[in-house]
């Protein structure tokens, strides 16, 4: 045996030790670097164009939408606006397990800024654009509890100028026999009956204003930015980009390694928003006492039938650019209790978690993913991971690096 | 001191040899698993050898979470283009038990034996299957499963 072998062995051991010692920067394989780059916010770019909304990127529409977003006159009790649940100082969510408007909702309030990048809105994807999404809560009896004829009247009374310069003349709503005060095809019995008495042309005139209201709100929502976290400053250093650089603690680095490796989080939480915008049954327990909720299986039926979808008469797409809707999967058993994969940007400050706030802490979420229990309905896609308490702690440490940092001065 | 250091060096040496053996073993196992992984060729004969299919993504590299188009060139066993066939597309992730995130549809293209599959999307990294069922106008039919690893 060569006398050099022990020396070489010692050198190798020292080298290995150096790379595992606390404080040494983590090293990544070529494959891991490719994955890391795909998670970097620098890859995000502007939200994809929305061909169904011709004012999607119009600053005047965004200004109108911003005002509408926080206008509580758009609710049955005059107290609920979009901003009641989508609170700007809480990353556009509330801190509740499920949203609360006029009454108690069934699902967790979602953040708004990443939504512009998603082809499907709501936890079950029952809307296919930001503007179609904005219409739902307004007429939901437990959210705004409003009707579309009331929306049209609020817009006519308080926003006529900016509305008409964007969308053209407002219909004359003064005849209350033609345009009842409270009328909607999805409202309570009285509102539905009032809607049914309207002529198709008058219904369409109201629907048009209602859709335009949504399009203005969507234009505002598209201006909201997902802000970088310390994770992105770390990647800026790794990839030699200019700007602020940061390091990861050994726990954060270990958590990141688990996130893209053993724990398989990045399988679905991929891309710069850490979501594939898809739907998955991850066996999340139902909220005690909650009504049956089939998730995407029901949501996809709703969006296909939604008159405000990309292919509907109020869409500006004219049939082009509606690929997601055109090729939507319907009637797939895997859609039962499948819910949207949410962005993990800023996730630490968004407790409680899952589509109905079932878990209070990220550790509980990771414990669930590690154990992978059977789904209450349908089939969970998860496989057990057997994460140790230390590994869960490390993943949570990594998730903390996704906290959105305060806006930087230019 | 020096004796102790030598002993320590000897232990490290043996550990290194052991490590090398373990590493070699691990690489051999990894190699075997890799070799046994799914066949990712996109230029293959159908299951019963009735047709030959060349499949291509119209966008390279294959995009993640974006609806895009694939092309098919369909020939018979003798290499003649097959026109007017009905192609149905299915697939999913066998390791996750779910189908494709979209429902793609195939339509004939203008050139002989050529078809376009619209509406393809992959939403996760990992092993995807794209399954084609082919039915030619003369009634011959066959199927094939392509593997795409992202």
- Helix % of chain A is 25-40%
Shape of chain B: globular
- Rounded average pLDDT of chain B: 83
Total number of distinct structural domains of chain B: 2
One letter per element, helices H and strands E, the order of chain B comes to HEEEEEEEEE
CATH homologous superfamily placement of the largest domain in chain B: Domain of unknown function DUF4426
Q: Helix and strand succession of chain A?
A: HHHHHHHHHHHEHHEHH
The biggest beta sheet of chain A reads: 2 strands, antiparallel
Radius of gyration of chain A: 24 Å
- CATH superfamily placement of the largest domain in chain A: Cytochrome c-like domain
Number of strands of chain A: 2
Widest sheet: strand ordering of chain A: 1-2
Average per-residue pLDDT of chain A, rounded, comes to 93
Low-confidence parts of chain B, pLDDT < 50 over ≥5 residues? 1-16, 18-35
Oligomer: heterodimer
Binned strand content of chain A = under 5%
How many beta strands in the DSSP annotation of chain B? Answer: 9
CATH architecture of the largest domain in chain A: Orthogonal Bundle
**Any idea of the CATH class of the largest domain in chain A?**
Mainly Alpha
CATH topology term of the largest domain in chain A: Cytochrome Bc1 Complex, Chain D, domain 2
Describe it for me?
The complex is a heterodimer of chains A (410) and B (150). The longest helix of chain A is centred in the middle third of the chain and has 22 residues, at 200-221. Chain A has two domains: 26-44 and 227-287 and 336-400, Cytochrome c-like domain (Cytochrome Bc1 Complex, Chain D, domain 2); 59-221, Cytochrome Bc1 Complex, Chain D, domain 2, CATH 1.10.760.10. The N and C termini of chain A lie far apart (64 Å). Chain A is built from 15 helices and two strands. Helix content of chain A is 38%, strand content 1%. Chain B is α+β, with helices and mostly antiparallel strands and 150 residues long. Chain B folds into two domains: 1-36; 43-149, Sandwich (Immunoglobulin-like). In chain B, strands 1-2-3-7-6 form a five-stranded antiparallel β-sheet, with no helix packed on it. In chain B, strand 1 (43-45) and strand 2 form a beta hairpin. The model of chain B is unreliable at 1-16 and 18-35 (pLDDT under 50). Classes of the chains: A mainly alpha (410), B alpha+beta (150).
